[in-house]
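[User]
If only I could read C-alpha cells as easily as an amino acid sequence. I have put the entry right below:
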Amino acid sequence: MGRVFDYLCIFATVILTAYGQVVLKWRIAKFGSLPAESLEKIRFLFSLFLDPYILSGFLAAFMAALCWMAAMTKFELSYAYPFTSLNFAVVLILSTLLLGEPISGQKIVGVVVIAFGTFIAAKG
C-alpha cells in the first residue's frame, strides 16, 4: 500500500499542476488582456489575485509542490521527473473539454510521443 501512495504523490502533482494551469487560463480570460500602462498592469494583476478561483489555482500549485516533495523522498529525480511531462496530456484534454480550445492531430501525436517517452524513461 505504501508504494501506491508514493505513486499517488506523483500523479497528484500532475493533476494539481494541470488544474492550476487550466483554472488560471479560464479566469484570466474573464478579466481580459493585460493593460499597457505599468500602474494599470499592477492593478490588473492584483485584481486577478483576489479572484477566488485564481487563488484556488495558487493553492493547487502549493499542494502540488507538497506532493512533489513527498514523492522526492521515495523516488530518484531521474525516475519521477519524466512523469511530470504527463501535464501536457492532461492540460490538452482539460483545455479542450473545459475551455473549448481546438485540438489537432499534431497535438495528439505530440502528446502520444510524450507519453511514450515517459514510459521509456520510467522503464530505464
